[in-house]
């Protein structure tokens, strides 16, 4: 059942569940920030509307810089702006930022420890028909490896908005991973949010869980649906929303692993280096637990709807159910 | 900014000579590092830190200070030696260059030495950072001058040209870029590695102001900076023709000194030559 102490969207299992993109949540969050804090600046590499940075740009044109299609410059310019005491947000598609400009992010932002907020939209399969060139399956890996960086992958519109607002209050370089497509609204405005804190969004009605599913990003919805199905078959599941991938909620993960002794990680990203890898690193060190990984399996994407891609690349609800059954067998051995 | 006079120039020459000596001593002590570019830029750093910059070594993070971004971080021995001479930290500390736990990292790292405006080393992104500083200062009305020091070799990096386009677009007349035009990079002559041709033409074609100066002539550099400060609507490039290895005859214009440090014998020879300049 849904963990109602988190005040989640109760209509989540309805066919007409409300769907809004996480990029929309970012755009609205940034606008709100701009109204409250005059030190907020925004830079974009010619994708202002796509990333929803246009909401800020139209309202505060004097604090918005269009840098052109030049992501490397955008990152380093933002570092310079941050060094003057401002809080710049830079937006593009994840494949270009932090993809194209990784070294500038590493050296000018993270090595200098400047509070630049990097917004990578259209991540994972969400950019669908644009094809494999634009589908960022690697951005979590390349950001979480950089010291000083905070990495957040919001599960829905509300969380994206909250993460945007929350990250401006910290001095940390931060990467926020967003999706293009409209995805189910899982949380509400009343759902608590704190950077670095995981949440158990789905729990068994009674007793301990047999398996823990850890998901990040909008694919959390599929994890919840899988848990809902499994519950009907008598398998007790806890689902964790791990929206902050770095710093990792080590305590929360150990607690889930201790209870379930079987974990499945779920992400719209390469398995190598992604959120599942971060969970595996943590549990290998702290509480050895069998883990199954749902994610992209060392492949590039292709054109198709997000739904088609998710089905064909093994990151659909059915794949989560399958991995849960698999990890339960390993758990019993 | 005061105007120069003969007496001031005499004083600057002595300081520059001392800085060159420090550069050689610290590179010898470190037994690795970049000699040619550091020696070549000693006069420009001297003029900036002892005449041009609005700064306060006793209050290094003074919010109203001008900003100086060193993009080609490998010439940091000249930055460190100049900052020490100006009073940011003890000259004795220069001996720690490139050693474990030193504030004077092989390439500048601001977390170790916060008096610097940025970390650098990977080429081609310093100008972007200076552009960011100039944008923020312009929007928030700070009235500072932002100086970027870049090398000719790093103009190979596309990132630099992205920064130049934006600097013009944002009409950053508070930005002055000094290009160390020494014609060498690690693999040889710049025109052989990747031809740059006429830089003045290039910068002008990007709608920026551009001047050429002798990078060892205090008068010329100072006049160019003074003129740049009066320019409106675009940043100014000062192309400073410098001699890599300047001050040590045997090393001058020899690209092999780009990325190596002197041994004992070479250091002693160089220091003796510089002592003769007194």
Total domain modules of chain A: 2
Indicate the low-confidence ranges of chain A by residue numbers: none
CA-to-CA gap between the ends of chain A?
28 Å
Gap between N and C termini of chain B, in Å?
Answer: 27 Å
Residue windows where pLDDT falls under 50 for at least 5 positions of chain B: none
CATH hierarchy, class of the largest domain in chain A:
Alpha Beta
Structural classification of chain A: alpha/beta
The helix/strand order of chain B is HHHEHHEHEEEHHEHEH
CATH hierarchy, class of chain B: Alpha Beta
Chain pair forming the biggest interface: A-B, 29 and 33 residues
DSSP strand content of chain B: 5-15%
Widest β-sheet, arrangement of strands of chain A: 3-2-4-5-7-6-12
Label the overall shape of chain A. Answer: globular
Adjacency order of strands in the biggest sheet of chain B: 1-2-3-7-6
- Largest sheet of chain B at a glance? 5 strands, parallel
What is the CATH third-level topology name of the largest domain in chain A?
A: Rossmann fold
CATH architecture of the largest domain in chain A: 3-Layer(aba) Sandwich
CATH fold-level assignment of chain B: Rossmann fold
Series of secondary-structure elements of chain A, N-terminal to C-terminal: EHEHEHEHEHEHEEEEHEEHEHEHH
Walk me through what this model shows.
Chain A contains eleven helices and 14 strands. With 333 residues, chain A is α/β, with parallel strands linked by helices. Chain A folds into two domains: 19-184, Rossmann fold, CATH 3.40.50.970; 196-332, 3-Layer(aba) Sandwich (Rossmann fold), CATH 3.40.50.920. Chain A has a seven-stranded mixed β-sheet with strand order 3-2-4-5-7-6-12, sandwiched between helices. The longest helix of chain A is centred in the last third of the chain and has 16 residues, at 317-332. Chain B has a single domain (6-275), classed as Rossmann fold (3-Layer(aba) Sandwich). Helix content of chain B is 41%, strand content 12%. Chain B has ten helices and seven strands. In chain B, helix 9 links the parallel strand 6 and strand 7. Chain B is globular. Chain B starts with 5 loop residues before the first helix and ends with a helix. The model of chain B has no long low-confidence stretch (mean pLDDT 96).
């Amino acid at each position: 059942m849904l963990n109602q102490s988190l005040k989640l969207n109760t209509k989540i299992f309805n066919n007409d569940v409300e769907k809004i993109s996480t990029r929309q949540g970012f755009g609205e969050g940034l606008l709100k920030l701009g109204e409250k804090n005059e030190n907020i600046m925004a830079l974009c590499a010619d994708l202002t509307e796509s990333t929803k940075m246009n909401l800020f740009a139209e309202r505060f044109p004097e604090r918005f810089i269009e840098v052109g299609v030049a992501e490397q410059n955008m990152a380093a310019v933002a570092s310079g702006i941050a060094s003057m005491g401002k809080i710049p947000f830079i937006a593009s598609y994840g494949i270009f930022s932090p993809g194209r400009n990784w070294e500038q992010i590493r050296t000018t932002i993270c090595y200098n420890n400047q509070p630049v907020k990097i917004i990578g939209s259209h991540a994972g399969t969400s950019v669908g028909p644009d094809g494999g060139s634009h589908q960022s399956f690697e951005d979590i890996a390349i950001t979480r490896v950089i010291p000083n960086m905070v990495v957040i992958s919001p599960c829905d519109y509300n969380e994206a908005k909250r993460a945007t607002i929350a990250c401006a209050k910290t001095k940390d370089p931060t990467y926020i991973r967003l999706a293009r497509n409209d995805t189910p609204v899982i949380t509400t405005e009343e759902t608590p949010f704190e950077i670095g804190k995981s949440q158990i969004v789905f729990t068994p009605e009674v007793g301990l869980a047999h398996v823990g599913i850890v998901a990040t990003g909008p694919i959390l919805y599929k994890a919840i649906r899988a848990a809902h199905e499994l519950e009907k078959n008598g398998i007790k599941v806890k689902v964790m929303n791990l929206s902050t991938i770095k710093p990792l909620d080590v305590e929360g993960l150990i607690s889930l692993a201790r209870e379930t002794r079987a974990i499945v990680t779920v992400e719209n990203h390469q398995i190598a280096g992604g959120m599942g890898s971060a969970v595996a690193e943590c549990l290998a060190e702290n509480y050895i637990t069998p883990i199954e990984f749902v994610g992209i399996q060392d492949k590039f994407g292709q054109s198709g709807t997000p739904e088609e891609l998710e089905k064909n690349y093994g990151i659909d609800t059915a794949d989560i159910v399958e991995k849960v059954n698999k990890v339960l067998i390993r758990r019993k051995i | 900014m005061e105007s120069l006079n003969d007496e001031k120039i005499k004083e600057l020459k002595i300081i520059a000579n001392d800085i060159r000596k420090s550069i050689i001593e610290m590179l010898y002590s470190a037994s690795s590092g970049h000699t040619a570019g550091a020696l070549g830029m000693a006069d420009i750093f001297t003029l900036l830190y002892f005449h041009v910059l609005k700064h306060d070594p006793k209050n290094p993070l003074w919010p109203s200070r001008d900003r100086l971004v060193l993009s080609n971080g490998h010439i940091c021995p000249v930055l460190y030696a100049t900052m020490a001479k100006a009073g940011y930290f003890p000259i004795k500390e220069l001996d720690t260059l490139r050693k474990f736990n030193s504030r004077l990292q092989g390439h500048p790292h601001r977390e170790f030495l916060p008096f610097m405006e940025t970390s650098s080393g990977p080429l081609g992104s310093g100008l972007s950072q200076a552009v960011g500083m100039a944008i923020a200062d312009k929007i928030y009305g700070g009235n500072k001058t932002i100086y970027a020091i870049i090398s000719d070799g790093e103009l190979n990096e596309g990132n630099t040209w992205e920064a130049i386009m934006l600097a013009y677009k944002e009409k950053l007349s508070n930005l002055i870029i000094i290009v160390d035009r020494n014609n060498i990079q690690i693999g040889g002559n710049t025109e052989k590695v990747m031809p740059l041709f006429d830089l003045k033409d290039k910068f002008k074609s990007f709608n920026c102001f551009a001047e050429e100066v002798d990078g060892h002539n205090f008068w010329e550099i100072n006049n160019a900076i003074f003129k740049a400060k009066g320019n409106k609507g675009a940043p100014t490039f000062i192309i400073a023709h410098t001699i890599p290895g300047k001050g040590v005859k045997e090393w001058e214009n020899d690209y092999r000194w780009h990325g190596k440090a002197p041994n004992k014998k070479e250091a002693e020879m160089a220091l003796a030559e510089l002592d003769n300049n007194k």
